[in-house]
Amino acid sequence: MIKVLVVEDHPIVREGVMTVLERERDIKVVGAAETSREGLRLAATLRPDVVLLDLKLPDADAFDGVASFAREGRSIVVFTAYDSDEDVFRAIRGGARGYLLKGSPAADIAQAVRQTHAGESYLSPRIAAKLVKGVTERRGRTGLLSGRERGVLRLVAAGQSNRQIAETLKISERTVKFHVTAIFNKLGADNRAQAVAIAAERGLLSDQ
To answer: First CA to last CA across the chain, in angstroms?
Structure first.
């Protein structure tokens, strides 16, 4: 069972998300908070696996909140209405493993929780598409990654798991893991979300 803490200051949004997650058999909402301070206190006692965190809370700078929960070792899914590249990059660099837009379908919310709990990253499809599209207008150090590694990274950015990438590229899952590890090492990334953010900034997600 995946234990989730919801930190969101708008009651209607908070209750809606809790209702969505409580319908899932493998997810349990163990608590809810309106502020970052209250969320950190609850996280210390309830020990959730995943924290669904609003990016804009009344008692904390948007990214200080992300960093505070990350220091506690929680998997963080940012849940926000803001989709600027800067917000995405800063949240991921602060330690978030997922970036989910408010208004996302219920299935996407549950999927974000499952993927981040499994150690993978999750970006809302709209965010992933925006990043990939945006970098085609920039040129970066594409020589840093091999063609195969860039192909794998584009699929990571699209939200695919290692198994899905293996099926898409017709290679083994073990080979995918090898490529993902190599990508992390070359980019200096700690996780999939960070790798996507760094690569997007450097223009490494472009087909060219």
So the answer is: 43
Q: What's the pTM?
A: 0.67
166, 158 in Cβ contact below 8 A?
Answer: no
Domains and CATH numbers, the chain: 2-122 (3.40.50.2300), 129-202 (1.10.10.10)
Tens-digit pLDDT profile for residues 163-187: 999 999 999 998 998 899 889 888 8
Three-class DSSP labels, the chain: CEEEEEECCCHHHHHHHHHHHHCCCCEEEEEEECCHHHHHHHHHHHCCCEEEEECCECCECHHHHHHHHHHCCCEEEEEECCCCHHHHHHHHHCCCCEEEECCCCHHHHHHHHHHHHCCCCEECHHHHHHHHHHHCCCCCCHHHCCHHHHHHHHHHHCCCCHHHHHHHHCCCHHHHHHHHHHHHHHHCCCCHHHHHHHHHHHCCCCCC
Residues in the chain: 208
